[in-house]
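re: the backbone from monday

yeah here it is again, tokenized this time
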């Protein structure tokens, strides 16, 4: 079992910035990927960005150039720096990880609200 604890969500104005954190714990199995998804009201959950253990990233087109994922491998923690936020970025942001055994885990989510 892997536990994911997210933090850093909140209310920000259009054009503002936020930083999300996600710490993974609870398993000695290696982490294969970590990243973020989001779900806006009335919409399906969508990929924001995913990062492999080798550092390869895949960003959604809608966030390229504005969001940056980084990690502290020693702490099994990933960060999402979100800049130039827009009202359409409003969503619950979920941390996701998949282990080297291809088992996926989700965090409980953190709400990001961007006011216009």
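seq for it, each position gets an aa:
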């Amino acid at each position: 079992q892997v536990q994911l604890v997210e933090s850093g969500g909140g209310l920000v104005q259009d054009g503002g910035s936020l930083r999300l954190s996600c710490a993974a714990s609870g398993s000695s199995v290696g982490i294969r990927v970590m990243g973020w998804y989001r779900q806006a009201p009335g919409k399906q959950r969508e990929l924001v960005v995913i990062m492999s253990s080798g550092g390869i990233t895949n960003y959604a087109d809608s966030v390229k150039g504005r969001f940056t994922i980084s990690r502290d491998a020693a702490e099994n923690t990933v960060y999402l720096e979100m800049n130039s936020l827009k009202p359409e970025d409003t969503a619950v942001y979920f941390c996701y990880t998949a282990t080297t055994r291809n088992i996926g885990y989700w965090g409980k989510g953190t709400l990001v609200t961007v006011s216009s």
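The chain is about 0% helix and 55% strand. The first strand starts at residue 3 and ends at 7.
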